[in-house]
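HUMAN: Quick job: go over this next protein and say how the chain folds.
***
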Amino acid sequence: RHGYIYRNGNHWTQKHIAWLRTLEFAEPMLTSVFGNYFGLIRLMRRWSCIKKDMALHFMEKSER
């Protein structure tokens, strides 16, 4: 955790994500790893939304 603890509510809420974006690390490598990890989480959420959209599309198409 590198000394960072979120204490203002639940994790992975909009407020928590905004807080995560404010974090700064002393080591450039930590900044890079965190940025890549954070980006991957956002990509995985987006991919989940795309899969749901595709499933709905094909279900609607098969009902016609």
Notes: The CA atoms of residues 3 and 12 lie 18 Å apart.
